[in-house]
Design a protein that fits this description.
Elements (H helix, E strand, L loop, with lengths): L3 H9 L9 E7 L4 E4 L3 E3 L8 H7 L1 E2 L2 E3 L2 E3 L5 E2 L1 E3 L4 E4 L1 H17 L6 E11 L4 E5 L8 E8 L4 E3 L2 E5 L2 E5 L7 E8 L3 E4 L2 E4 L1 E10 L12 H16 L7 E4 L16 H16 L2 E18 L13 E18 L10 E2 L18 E5 L8 E15 L3 H7 L2 H16 L3 H20 L16 H11 L3 H13 L8 H7 L7 H13 L4 H13 L6 H9 L22 H14 L1 H13 L6 H13 L10 H17 L19 H11 L5 E5 L2 H14 L3 E6 L6 E6 L2 H21 L1
Antiparallel strand pairs: 1-16, 2-3, 2-9, 4-8, 5-6, 7-11, 8-10, 10-19, 11-17, 12-16, 12-19, 13-18, 14-15, 14-17, 20-25, 21-22, 21-25, 22-23, 24-25, 26-28, 27-28
Length: about 750
């Protein structure tokens, strides 16, 4: 059986299309009186002698790219005169223009009143052109562009209009006594081919809807509505079908014209059928902006003859990345919604090939740089009707990930907390359902690993579940996090807070399970969690404390690798702080055993890198300074600091410096001799770059008291080495830190 997207597209394909994406024709000319400031009256047909005066007062016409307005003769070669310098008059012209506007509106399928606002006068002299582009919104209510070609003598300059795989090529020349016109929706891709000779003179108008009336109503599609409603009923009962359906529309819409009431032509007709069928089949219907973004490799193409611009030197090659998303949502009743950016899956498109052969709205090429080849980026924008059975909203949200679902849940809970009593039950059920969907689809990998002390989205979700008083949801999320090892130290506070809805006996048992499950691979998380639980006064944590003690790393030479993808991470002082703060509050004997373990393995728990910084933090906190846990650690750190403080400290008496280096090559031996020499202050090594780099690296690794600079005079360059007092200065800084640490311990 065909997919539901294919079947829906087939049903909607029978909806008749009112109007078209363009309208064109000729009209008997009620000649306007045209006067241009700085030129005077303009005769029609345009006289050749008037072309140069018009060009003198004109300016190069720009074009829009995204939010930018640019002037580039490789993209657009044309001249413009603004409306403030052009005066149009004549009663006959008013009648002619009114007739043209009416015909254009009819051809575009717009029955409501339409007005034409004069935008500018354009001149395309010989060679003038405009590459393919889409018009931007220039006035409120603008939905289309109207071109009126005034009588003039020219050849070429055809107008090409493309839309959804169709193309119209219009020759805007008319017989004597006539004007030619063309109107097209503003989102249509169009271009002006080069003018071969003469000068093409056109008036450009913005077509605007009057008031807030809706576009024409579609004809009666009762049969199609019945068939679509039946299809939706079938879809609603089948949980294995796509979560949502996305039906791309034929037109793109400006932000001001984006809404159900502003849909054009067939889009309006299709939306009417879907709205009626959705209402009968318990289906939600939305309008959204569909964006396709692609990037990939670009290939250089040799072109001969006329070139339209620099980008024509490349063409898109292999596609590397593609995303399809929905945003800027509108409800069928005209309202907005808090739905954010939601991805589109391939099986959700109707028809499945709806996004093939699109014309990009933006296309940019990047030339090759360094090791990177040439690349391209493309953006396609369309409007789309989006549907899903009632009750699947939360499943749709979950597709978008935590960036969308968590803010939505926060809004739901805020509404619940602020609701009056009679609405509370329904709102809580709604929030509860979304929370259940989120937990069920919780990602395997949480975010925040780059900063383990920063809470992840797990902590945020636990906070929301706590506000919702969802004990079952909290338990499920904690189980998921434990199974995936998905916690970091920054989550500990939220985990402990989330245990409040659980019974007092359950809380320490769950802490013990998490500590036991996390300690082997995520020791810091287990330590932080235990410390947080002890800090809030939770009792019954002895089993968890014993598990953490048993998991402490010892001899680094005998410790098994915990991660196959990298070396065992160094123990941080913050872990020792959490360990001793937590254990001291739970059981002093366990804390004392932990201190004994720390002092037994100095290579794992280095005095200067781990224990002294940890004790520095501990003495500033609440941990007791006396007792079996803290006393041995304080004594060991005091003895370590005192020994180093007692060592003599004085600057070098002469030029001798520590001369032990790790390499015994000829050049490094010469470096060692220089370091040991009491009289030499500098040494110059003239050598190839590889030799200079090797000696400089030896100096860096040995932390030798040497500054280096490269002398680029002559060939090869020279490495100039000058002795300094870096070791002495480091010891001065260390002495100051040691004295401060010792004073803190003694204080």
């Amino acid at each position: 059986m065909a997919s539901i997207g294919t079947r829906l597209a087939a049903l909607l394909g029978s909806v008749r299309r009112p109007g078209d994406f363009f309208a064109a024709g000729t009209e008997m000319l009620g000649a306007p009186s045209i006067e241009v400031e700085g030129v005077g009256p303009v005769a029609l047909p345009l006289l050749p002698v008037q072309i140069k005066p018009l060009l003198r007062v004109a300016t190069p016409a720009p074009y829009g790219r995204g939010t930018e307005t640019l002037v580039d003769s490789a993209v657009r070669r044309c001249w413009q005169i603004g409306p403030e310098r052009v005066r149009l008059g004549g009663r006959s012209w008013e009648r002619t223009l009114a007739s043209i506007v009416a015909r254009a509106a009819e051809g575009l399928g717009v029955a409501d009143p339409v007005t034409a606002a004069f935008y500018k006068l354009l001149l395309y002299d010989q060679g003038g052109f405009f590459v393919g582009h889409r018009d931007t919104e220039k006035a409120a209510g603008m939905f289309a562009t109207l071109i009126v070609a005034l009588p003039s003598i020219f050849a070429g300059g055809d107008l090409l209009i493309r839309h959804k795989g169709r193309e119209a090529r219009l020759d805007l020349q008319a017989e004597a006594g006539e004007v030619a016109f063309a109107a097209f929706y503003a989102d249509c891709l169009h271009e002006v081919l080069p003018v071969a000779e003469g000068c093409r003179l056109v008036l450009v108008y913005n077509l605007l809807r009057v008031g807030k009336k809706n576009p024409p109503e579609p004809p009666d599609y009762a049969k199609e509505q019945d068939q679509v409603a039946t299809l939706f009923e079938e879809w609603r009962k089948d949980e294995d079908r796509p979560v949502k359906l996305v039906f791309p529309l034929e037109h793109a819409y400006t932000p001001a014209e984006f809404g159900f009431a502003a849909l054009k032509g067939a889009d309006r007709a299709v939306a009417g059928v879907l709205a009626a069928a959705a209402q009968r089949s318990m289906t939600d219907l939305y309008l959204a902006a569909l964006t396709v973004e692609e990037s990939g490799a670009a290939e250089y193409v040799e072109r001969s003859g006329w070139r339209r611009g620099e980008e024509d030197e490349f063409e898109a090659g292999e596609l590397f990345d593609r995303s399809v998303t929905l945003s800027d949502w509108r409800r069928s009743d005209g309202g907005t919604t808090v739905l954010g950016e939601i991805p589109v899956k391939e099986d959700e498109l109707s028809p499945p090939d709806a996004l093939e052969d699109l014309d990009p709205d933006e296309e940019h090429f990047q030339e090759a740089t360094g090791n990177e080849g040439a690349s391209y980026e493309r953006t396609y924008r369309r409007a789309a009707l989006v549907l899903w059975p009632e009750g699947r909203l939360f499943a749709v949200l979950v597709q978008a990930g935590l960036a969308v679902t968590l803010p939505f849940l926060e809004a739901e809970i805020a509404a619940l907390e602020a609701s009056p009593g009679e609405d509370w039950t329904a709102l809580r059920q709604r929030a509860q359902k979304l929370a259940t969907e989120i937990v069920a689809a919780w990602p395997n990998m949480v975010q925040g690993w780059n900063d383990p002390d920063h809470p992840t989205e797990t902590a945020r979700m636990l906070g929301l579940l706590t506000r919702l008083e969802d004990a079952a949801g909290i338990a499920r999320l904690l189980e998921r996090g434990l199974a995936d090892r998905g916690f970091v130290p920054g989550d500990a506070e939220a985990i402990v807070a989330s245990l409040e809805p659980l019974s007092p006996p359950q809380r320490p048992r769950l802490i013990e399970r998490i500590v036991r499950g996390m300690a082997d691979e995520h020791l810091e998380t287990a330590g932080r969690l235990l410390a947080m639980a002890a800090k809030v006064g939770m009792t019954g944590l002895n089993d968890a404390a014993k598990h953490l003690l048993a998991a402490l790393p010892g001899d680094p030479a005998r410790a098994p690798a915990r991660h196959s993808w990298g070396p065992e991470p160094r123990v941080r002082p913050s872990f020792v702080v959490d360990l001793l703060a937590g254990l001291a509050a739970i059981d002093q004997e366990i804390a004392a055993a932990a201190v004994e373990h720390l002092l037994a393995w100095p290579k794992t728990y280095d005095m200067d890198l781990v224990l002294v910084p940890a004790l520095r933090a501990l003495t500033e906190g609440d941990i007791r300074r006396e007792g079996p846990a803290s006393a041995p650690l304080i004594a060991a750190c005091r003895a370590h600091l005192a020994r180093r403080i007692a060592e003599p400290l004085q600057p070098p008496a002469d030029g001798r410096r520590e001369s032990t280096v790790g390499c015994r090559c000829t050049h490094c031996i010469a470096l060692a001799r220089f370091l040991a020499d009491p009289f030499e202050k500098s040494w110059t090594l003239r050598a190839a770059e590889s030799v200079r780099r090797h000696v400089a690296e030896t100096i860096r690794r040995a932390e030798a008291d040497v500054d280096t600079v490269t002398d680029r005079r002559g060939r090869p360059y020279s490495l100039v080495c000058m002795k300094n007092q870096a070791s002495y200065e480091r010891r001065v800084r260390q002495r100051a830190q040691d004295l401060a640490d010792l004073a803190r311990l003694d204080g």
